[in-house]
Amino acid sequence: MKDLLMKRKGQFIIYIIACFMPVIDSLIRMGLFSMIFGVIEKRDIEYFKILVILSIFAALLTGGFHIASRLMRIGFMKNILLDVRKQAFDKIIHISYKDFSKQSKEVYMSHLINDINTFENNFFLNLLNVIYMGGLYIVCLIILYVIDYKLAIAMTLVSIGLFLFASLFSKKTESLQEEVSNQNEQLTVEVANTFNGLEILKLNNIEDKFLDKSLNAINRVEKRKVAFNIFSEQQRSLMMFSSYIVLFGVVIYVAASMNSSNFTTAMFSVQLCSNLVFPLVEILPRMNVIKSSRRIYEKITKQETNHEEEEQGKVPFEFKESIEVQGLNFGYEDKILLKDAHFKLEKGKKYLIKGVSGSGKSTLMKLLSMIYDEYEGKILVDGTDYKTIQEKDFNNQVAFIYQDVFLFEDTMRNNISLYKDISDEIIQVACKKAGLQELIEEKEEGLGTVLSENGKNLSGGQRQRISIARALAKNAEILFVDEGTSALNEDIGKKIEQELLNLECTVVAISHRYYEGVTDQYDYVLELKNGHVETYQAREYFGEVVIC
């Protein structure tokens, strides 16, 4: 948090000055209020006229201070919030895929929206008041030491006592704020699930059930917010009660000392003490809220350092001969998907993963593509352990074709190149192999055609062909294909699978479809049965085994 504020030192200094400006306003009002009692004491009309003129001038001056303070603060606030959003987004963008996939994407959306809004609402309002009230406290204490040092010492001791009292509430405030953040995450996930599956919900007439779930999630968020607000108000109430007791003692002390001071000075001393005690009532609970805001900030922006990962992932990915799997064991909770698996992938060969639904085909592909790394056994590429390979370098040299395609709201060219510097010639070749040529030619802007959100202006088959072209244009060492032709008709699917088999790279594919005369051109089939992986030559497998 300190680095965030000090990133723009000049603006932060201006911000602090702007927050201090209302202190002048408060001192002027205190002085004018004390002078009113002086008028009553002296009963002097000329003194009263001077007070009226000073009051008018003070009103104009403090109004100008208020406007100037607002203008001086707003730029810094805007830039800080922009920095927080950038840091939160940067954390998500640069997180490894393995870590990213550990949470629902809606959780990250909650960080970017709910948590940043919470930070904005809580942090700046409280920081402004802490700086202002802290400044008022310091100035009033200095003046009080000049007027009555005994009273000033007593107020200093009282301040320390109130500070220690408020510190008792600190951890609870932070934990309640974190609970609000966690409930916001759950709400975002619930609402996203409802919206994503709204078509299914309506077709099956179960929208009311999911509406109740969403309402319950909203209710939990609001309960946490109420708990946080009530606890914060309880702090203020207890502090306020303590402050009234202290102020009552001050009034008694000042009344007893009236013989040594005039009425104006006495009232000014009372107001000074009031502005020592009551700002603390606001400062200390607000400091607790600022601490909780700091935890929210760290939660959404701090790059988590995994010391185990720091020791790993330093070796560049080089694939010249083979990827060998030795004694691989993997499962989810109590379900074992792979048991003591042994097999080898040779460079340039084509492999088809087969098995019944739920046998672990997609899991095996994710292990081979470094998405999962919490496994027992070894995966070696040319003798180098997968766990020592740089994930970024690996991802630069592999490509993926998935059944579920995501397309950006951008041009067809950018969706295929993924914003990398790939020549149109390479993209055109990839599009031809993916069966996209006809679509490109019928579009007036060709590759410059802008796709709507996630390609809603395309058919499912067209979207999948863009995904295939995207993978082909990358010219990767290894191509992973998970049901890559499932949305295509028989003829186009057969043609594209033939193109994939003609590639020079290593292909690892999952497919339930069988294209006669094409599918049996794979070099090997990896079949999953009861957690074990058996390797067959494709022609023998499809000649002897029933297609599943």
Automatic annotation (TrEMBL):
It comes from the Bacteria. Keywords: ATP-binding, Membrane, Nucleotide-binding, Transmembrane, Transmembrane helix. It is a multi-pass membrane protein. It is found in: Cell membrane. It comes from Holtiella tumoricola. This is ABC transporter ATP-binding protein. The keyword ATP-binding applies. It holds the Pfam family ABC_membrane. The chain crosses the membrane at residues 12-40, 46-68, 123-145, 151-169, 238-256. One of its GO terms (cellular component) is plasma membrane. One of its GO terms (molecular function) is ATPase-coupled lipid transmembrane transporter activity. Its main location: membrane. Residues 12-292 form the ABC transmembrane type-1 domain. The keyword Flavoprotein does not apply. PROSITE patterns: ABC_TM1F (PS50929), ABC_TRANSPORTER_1 (PS00211), ABC_TRANSPORTER_2 (PS50893). Residues 323-547 form the ABC transporter domain. InterPro entries: AAA+_ATPase (IPR003593), ABC1_TM_dom (IPR011527), ABC1_TM_sf (IPR036640), ABC_transporter-like_ATP-bd (IPR003439), ABC_transporter-like_CS (IPR017871), P-loop_NTPase (IPR027417), Type_1_exporter (IPR039421).
